[in-house]
Amino acid sequence: MAAGNSVTIVPLRRELTTYEAAEILNVSRPFVIGLLEKGEIAFRKVGAHRRIPLSALLEYKRKTDAIRDEALDVLAAQAQELKLY
Q1: CA separation for the pair 19, 24 (Å, rounded)
Q2: Tens of pLDDT along 37-58?
Q3: What is the mean predicted confidence (pLDDT) over 4-8?
Q4: H or E segment at 15?
């Protein structure tokens, strides 16, 4: 908030639409649907609509962020070894 960014507070039990999930992950809605259909994120169907528990989405985001951070650390180490900095 101090940096001027908006903050939203929602209960962890809240369910999200695929559109909302895509906004949080900063990806397209079809990409989110693909993740759901592959079983990478838990969801349930309400009629023809998919609902994603916020906790499941945040867990997926945490895991992918950790993988990304690890890959970046490896690349940075390789760049230092090769004196590419």
Answers
A1: 9
A2: 999 999 999 999 999 999 999 9
A3: 74
A4: strand 15-16
69-76: average pLDDT: 94
Give the per-residue SS3 of 38-79: CCCCCCEEECCEEEEEHHHHHHHHHHHHHHHHHHHHHHHHHH
Averaged pLDDT score across all residues of the chain: 91
| Cα 39–chain centre separation | 14
Give the contacts of 18 (CB within 8 A, at least 6 positions apart): 29, 32, 33, 36, 50, 52
The arithmetic mean of pLDDT across residues 7-26, rounded, is 86
For residues 50 and 18, is the Cβ–Cβ distance under 8 A? yes
Distances (CA, A) of 59 to 14, 19, 32: 14, 18, 14
Helix 54-81 vs helix 18-25: crossing angle, to nearest 10? 20
